[in-house]
Amino acid sequence: MCAAVCACHGLLHYEITEFSFTAEKFKEFLEGVAGTVKERTHIFLDNCKVHHAKSLKGIWEELDLVPIWNVPYKFDYNSAIEKYWALVKKSFRDLLLKRMLDVPRGKDLPLAPAVREAMRITPTSSISSFVLHGLAILERDATEIKNERKRFEIDK
Length: 156
What we know:
- This protein is 53% helix and 13% strand.
- By secondary structure, the chain is of the alpha+beta class.
- The protein has helices at 23-36, 59-62, 79-102, 111-121, 127-155; strands at 2-6, 10-15, 41-45, 65-69.
- Helix 3 (79-102) packs antiparallel against helix 5.
- The radius of gyration is 19 Å and the shape is globular.
- It has one domain: 2-Layer Sandwich (Nucleotidyltransferase, domain 5), CATH 3.30.420.10.
């Protein structure tokens, strides 16, 4: 699953796939994001290999998307999507448990429909505050780095 959230629009777009995301599937996701927001969009990305696929090289400009590559994983910078995922996972676990209890010994519990249902029922109202919190932490850390660089220059 891949999802995009923002402070202004909440949950922008998401894609669910049965298997791992390929470059082609990620390209479809990016097209979905671009189709949702009709303005230049900055996307914070982790360093997942598919995000750096050579076949995506021209897609960023074509779709008016600006990739912003995150530092090695830091929860605070990813808190918006991580906190939203936690809500989705809770809904998913509850749905899965209900299905397991409804069909004991069920050998084939399809997961993708349960994920889709979890996405449908999970409230998105807190996404804006999650995003704003992450941006505030990012701004705080950037300011600290700038101040540290200034002190370093003065000490030279």
